[in-house]
Amino acid sequence: MNANELEALCGAWPGVASGVKWEDDLVFTVAAKMFAVLCLRGQDRDRISFKVDTERFLELTDQPGIVPAHYMARAFWITIVEPERFKLEQIETFVRRSYELVRAGLSKKQQAALTAQETPPVAPARRARKEKR
Length: 133
Hints:
By secondary structure, this protein is α+β, with helices and mostly antiparallel strands. The chain has helices at 3-10, 57-61, 88-104, 108-118, 124-132; strands at 16-21, 25-30, 33-39, 48-51, 66-68, 77-80. It is globular.
């Protein structure tokens, strides 16, 4: 998965922002909390890291091509060091789950704000027209 594919996948999710941090990493956040990191250059280029379910951490890190993420393993993050071993759909599923896990850890107020972004309210003028029909 490259930067453009990751941006296309996550860009429309509620509350998602992205930016380059630490000079080499494209970081995706929800409400300023990281959920995915893609290395853009250097020896770790194209490696992607993200949060996983606590109970899946050991199972996933036992697979070839996956290791505990540097500095983030204690928070149950993994890194796919050999992305060619995985189908794009599988990586997309991992990233979506990471987003969901991080979002679930937000305050109720933050979660409510994100939910409001998902379902935009119907404009009052439209509602009135619909009721007349």
